[in-house]
Specification:
The complex is a heterodimer of chains A (about 325) and B (about 250). With about 325 residues, chain A is of the alpha/beta class. Chain A is built from 7 helices and 18 strands. In chain A, the strands form 4 sheets. In chain A, strands 7-11-6-1-4-5-12 form a 7-stranded parallel sheet, with helices on both faces. The longest helix of chain A is centred in the C-terminal third of the chain and has 18 residues, at about 300-320. Chain B has one domain (about 1-220): HUPs (Rossmann fold, 3-Layer(aba) Sandwich). Chain B has a 9-stranded mixed sheet with strand order 9-8-7-10-6-1-4-5-11, sandwiched between helices. In chain B, about 50% of the residues are buried. The chains are: A alpha/beta (about 325), B alpha/beta (about 250). At the A-B interface, helix 2, helix 3, strand 7, strand 9 and strand 10 of A face helix 3, helix 4, strand 7, strand 8 and strand 9 of B. Strand 18 of chain A pairs parallel with strand 13 (about 225) of chain B. The structure holds flavin-adenine dinucleotide (FAD) and adenosine monophosphate. Flavin-adenine dinucleotide binds near residues 207, 248, 266, 269 and 272 of chain A.
Chain lengths: ~325, ~250
């Protein structure tokens, strides 16, 4: 049995819940196992996971679980995994997941492979693949025979809609303790897709010269439906908020499209973005190291080219809608 | 306060990434090693600040071979009071967490710090394991911590923002950017470090978790395709038809 942890926010699944459902059900299919999900806290529609190949959803509907608590979540998941005799538990490598993975593996007396981005079955054996050295290499782990806790990096795979059926939802009551850590406040940008989940990202660096020039970046992001990001010196000087900082010391992202504007492409910046599927670099310096990591390059002054790109996107959207 | 900081050693951020012929291990020869930046810049410095405001002692701990003493000396030079090295090659996070838990169990640390992740294996799981082994809560990815009268107020990075948490108990915390400002050791610190204790402790028998079966380098990226700046329609067409990302 494979148990996946499906994360939600305000009673709705996050995108990574569907990714993890797709991941878990594919592993189940290829290894001849079964996959079930657990949903913690209030939820509007847990059965929708059926669409992504998960036939059974255990819903622990207790509003004390609406906010993440490492001790409470550990208790619930450990007990359920035990009852279901789950050999593999998969959770997302998100802020919540990162707070839980190590703890859960020890509590379950299971092995632990964190931050994987894929699996493969070789000669009947299940293997997990994980990027290491900030994306500069990959490591393969054999799943082995024992129990295992694995965390999956968001945006690692294309969500697969398997069918139109609904999952069977089983209500569960499970006792838990809590950590004694109190959540006082949550300041999360709303409206915009958070950076780690974004499929399209427009990012800008020191080439922008000053913060008041960011209008053209926001305009482009807006027309494209993308989330904005920035290089470290930009957030360090307070030009952009800290949560936009990508790279080795910021956050690591892996969108489908990363457009880097006026960013030189230092190795520490690349560490956070080089797992993007497609990279476009706009820079006026033909020697900028970022061009070596790019799929498409535009060598020009960003102040000329960005508004033109925005216009072209607008035109494309108008024609394709 | 009684503070413990877990510090690890990683290859320098700009070091070349290559592996032994059988793909089982990182090729260490000719590489520069440093203290993991999250441990050095944020976890250790925040612990030192706490000691300065609240009094107490900062102990740094590493699980590794004698060649890791250099990073412990650096930690002492930055200001830690005492270093402990558990003498073993560390095969995985569970092994390391179990060794540190064994050391910390009867020492009554108020806060145990780790970095958010090591920059080589990018596991980010050791803190959680350690917390569980010691039956403590774990606060991951802290970017700010205030501490007054035994109460900690912690900001933690979450997707697209921050969470503010409060606790008065003991806990394990993993440090991300923002928790403190990097400190460079000065001459006096370096001299003093020589006289500070560096205790070597024998490893205990513990379980290990899954180990890497094989390392591989990603396939070479193809040549970049340059697009005429005058023709942004062409870029949009390529992104739509060729790359299929919009
Ligand atoms: C340990 C460590 C960790 C680090 N972590 C990070 C990290 O997480 N993230 C990160 O981003 N950095 C990080 N850095 C910093 C990193 O090394 C670089 O200094 C930083 O990424 C550079 O930012 P930038 O590209 O915006 O600025 P610059 O290097 O100044 O580059 C600006 C670029 O804009 C181009 N440009 C200028 N004007 C124009 C114009 N009009 N039109 C078009 N192009 C133009 C220039 O040609 C240049 O390439 C780290 C450094 C260290 C030592
Ligand atoms: N060998 C080690 N000795 C002491 N602390 C370590 C060791 N390895 C990792 N750590 C700590 O655990 C944190 C997270 O490591 P990891 O889970 O391996 O990414 C690091 O930032 C260190 O604080």
């Amino acid at each position: 049995m494979i148990l996946i942890i499906a994360e939600s926010k305000e009673g709705k699944f996050k995108k990574n819940a569907f990714e993890i459902a797709t991941f878990g059900s594919r592993i189940a299919q290829e290894t001849g196992s079964e996959c079930a999900a657990v949903v913690l806290g209030s939820h509007e529609n847990p059965s929708v996971l059926g669409k992504y190949g998960v036939p059974k959803v255990y819903h622990v509907n207790n509003d004390k679980l609406d906010n993440f608590d490492d001790v409470a979540y550990r208790d619930v998941i450990t007990k359920l995994a035990d009852e279901l005799n789950a050999k593999l538990v998969v959770l997302p490598h998100t802020a919540e997941g990162k707070g839980l993975t190590g703890k859960l593996s020890v509590a379950m007396d299971a092995g632990c492979i964190s931050a994987v981005n894929g699996f493969k079955v070789v000669a009947g054996e299940l293997n997990f693949v994980k990027p290491v050295f900030s994306g500069k290499a990959f490591a393969t782990f054999k799943a082995g025979e024992g129990k295992l806790v694995v965390s999956l990096i968001p945006n690692s795979l294309q969500i697969g809609e398997a069918s139109g059926y609904e999952a069977e939802v089983i209500s569960k009551e499970i006792d838990f303790r809590s950590s004694g850590i109190e959540l006082v406040e949550k300041n999360v940008v709303t409206g915009e897709v958070p950076l780690p989940e974004a499929e399209l990202v427009v990012s800008a660096g020191r080439g922008m010269k000053e913060p008041s020039n960011w209008g053209i970046i926001e305009e482009l992001a807006d027309k494209l439906g993308a989330t904005t990001a920035c290089s470290r010196p930009v957030s360090d000087s307070g030009w952009r908020p800290h949560h936009e900082h990508v790279g080795q010391t910021g956050i690591a992202i892996r969108p489908n499209l990363y457009i880097a504007i006026g960013i030189s492409g230092a190795i520490q910046h690349l560490a956070g973005v080089n797992n993007s599927k497609v990279i476009v670099v706009i820079n006026k310096d033909p020697e900028a190291p970022f061009f070596k990591a790019a799929d498409y390059g535009v060598c020009a002054d960003l102040f000329d080219v960005v508004p033109r790109l925005t216009e072209a996107i607008e035109k494309f959207k108008a024609e394709n809608n | 306060m009684n503070l413990l900081v877990c510090v690890s050693k990683t290859p320098d951020t700009t070091a070349k990434v290559d592996f032994s012929e059988d793909g089982k291990s990182y090729n260490e020869s000719g590489k520069q090693f440093i203290m993991n930046p999250y441990d050095e810049w944020y976890a250790l410095v925040r612990a030192l600040e706490l000691k300065e405001s609240e009094g107490g002692e900062v102990v740094i701990i590493n699980v590794g071979p004698a060649s890791n003493d250099s990073i412990l000396r650096k930690g002492l030079a930055i200001g830690a009071d005492k270093a402990v090295r558990i003498d073993a090659e560390a095969p995985d996070a569970l092994f390391v967490a179990s060794q540190i838990a064994e050391y910390a169990r009867d020492k009554d640390f108020d806060i145990i710090f780790t970095g958010k992740e090591t920059i080589d294996y990018n596991g980010g799981i050791l803190g959680g394991m350690l917390a569980e082994l010691l039956d403590l809560p774990f606060v991951s990815f802290a970017s700010k911590m205030d501490y007054h009268d035994g109460q900690a107020t912690i900001e933690r990075d979450v997707e697209g923002g921050v969470e503010v948490l409060k606790t008065s108990g003991k806990f394990v915390i993993s440090a991300s950017k923002g928790l403190a400002e990097q400190r460079i050791p000065n001459m006096r610190g370096i001299m003093m470090a020589k006289r500070k204790p560096l205790e070597v402790v024998e490893a205990v028998e513990v379980k290990t978790g899954p180990v890497v079966d094989k390392f591989e380098l990603p396939p070479e990226k193809g040549e970049v395709k340059m697009v005429d700046p005058e023709n942004m329609e062409e870029l949009v067409r390529l992104l739509h038809e060729e790359a299929k990302v919009i």
